[in-house]
Design a protein that fits this description.
Layout: H1 2-28, E1 41-47, E2 57-58, H2 60-63, H3 66-74, H4 87-101, E3 105-111, E4 130-131, H5 134-143, E5 147-150, H6 160-169, E6 175-177, H7 179-182, H8 191-203, E7 207-210, H9 231-235, E8 240-243, E9 250-251, E10 254-255, H10 256-266, E11 270-273, H11 286-293, E12 298-299, H12 328-336, H13 340-350, H14 355-364
Parallel strand pairs: 1-3, 3-5, 6-7, 7-8, 8-11, 11-12
Antiparallel strand pairs: 2-4, 9-10
Helix pairs in contact: 6-8, 12-13
The structure holds zinc ion (ZN).
Residues 45, 47, 275, 303, 306 line the site of zinc ion.
Length: 373
């Protein structure tokens, strides 16, 4: 009798083990993306900070902040590694590795970030949290075949025009501004800003400018990031990419992106990027803003590493909130992928981003589709 129970118990145990093993392997199985989507996406909005390469600057107070340490962690640098002599290389390598391992991403435009300049055109270090010089990002783009050079020049700096000529000759794909931390007034641009914009137009250099609320840095003069201000640039015929489509912040009691809806009807040279669009503070916005309101005008961006910074136990990107709206294959793909870039891309594709949407990013910056440096 006891023997029969033992056989029965062993059989049941074996069945349970077999079932759970099978269940486990089914859950763990990574899905392959459809061929036409593999290695296709160009990320038009991403950042790399630098700590000790020539010209790099982090304001000491900002360097000690919790915020900054979170950004560094998302860039692949633990807080114990901040003093490493090769910290900058660690960050570049972590980013390149993530892109190379991605099944869906092909490459990325990575941004320099200029500082705040006083009335004499000199750098004001007390108002600059982070400065990532063009020379550093140019150098990074020369080392990594799938990273492209996104320059940043504050037009208020002394030699802004000469630097514009230089970065253009180095193949910069765009100029990046965050007007509310750089002190750039686009609503009533002073003559030197006007002149800088005219030269950008002549060089056919696109402008990526932050619009909407800004909370990445220690301070911001929000009115300078009012989406309505970019009309000055649009009027000149310059290609403008309104970063994040102003999905955060209100201006005169109205959400920032509502102003872009009017501008996009009026100006064929206006685009938005969907960087940080899946971040938890923009919850519920994504489909409505990016897919329904700006058809044919949305460029693909991540805002790496900022979009991957999770706070207080929250995932930076929440897959579950999109479950009901996503195509089921891409939901399963997103659930199983180990690559956080692919997770983000799968959500966007699963919500309706098409291959034509993906190709638009190449077109705007004159990069041949799926090519690499
Ligand atoms: Zn950004």
């Amino acid at each position: 009798m006891a023997h029969r129970y033992l056989v029965l118990a062993t059989t049941v145990l074996c069945l349970v083990i077999a079932y759970t093993t099978q269940l486990h392997s089914r859950e763990d199985r990574i899905l392959k993306a459809p061929l036409q989507f593999r290695k296709t996406i160009l990320d038009v909005h991403s950042h790399i900070a630098c700590l000790n390469s020539p010209g790099c600057y982090i304001r000491p107070g900002f360097k000690d902040s919790f915020k900054f340490k979170m950004y560094m962690k998302a860039s692949g640098l633990e807080s114990t590694d901040l003093d490493r002599w090769d910290a900058d290389d660690v960050m570049v390598n972590a980013y390149v590795k993530r892109l190379n391992e991605s099944e869906l991403y092909n490459g990325a435009i990575v941004y320099a970030l200029d500082g705040y300049y006083d009335q004499n055109g000199n750098l004001d270090k007390s108002k600059t949290d982070i400065l990532v010089p063009n020379s550093y990002i140019y150098d990074v783009s020369q080392r990594a075949r799938n990273l492209y050079f996104g320059a940043s020049i504050n037009p208020n700096k002394k030699d802004a025009l000469a630097e514009l000529e230089l970065v253009h000759s180095q193949g910069a794909k765009l100029i990046k501004w965050i007007p509310c931390i750089m002190g750039i007034d686009l609503k009533n641009p002073p003559p030197h800003v006007d002149k800088f914009l005219d030269r950008m137009k002549e060089l056919e250099m696109p402008l990526v400018t932050h619009v909407g609320g800004e909370n990445t840095f220690s301070w911001a003069d929000e009115k300078l990031c009012d989406p309505r201000n970019i009309e000055t640039v649009l009027n000149k015929g310059i290609t403008v990419i309104a970063a994040h489509a102003a999905t955060s912040g209100k201006f005169d009691q109205k959400p920032g992106f509502t102003y872009l809806l009017d501008l996009v009807q009026k100006y064929p040279n206006l685009y938005v990027d969907n960087s940080a669009g899946l971040f938890v503070n923009r919850m519920g916005f994504y489909k409505n803003v990016f897919l329904n309101n700006f058809p044919g005008r949305v460029l693909q961006g991540t805002d790496y590493p900022l979009s991957y910074v999770g706070f207080a136990g929250f995932q930076a990107i929440s897959l579950s909130q999109f479950k009901g709206e996503m195509n089921s294959f891409w939901y399963q793909y997103a659930k199983r992928t180990k690559n956080i870039h692919d997770l983000e891309a799968a959500i966007k594709i699963g919500l309706g981003t098409t291959l034509d949407d993906i190709k638009l990013s190449y077109e705007i910056f004159g990069i041949p589709y799926k090519s690499q440096n």
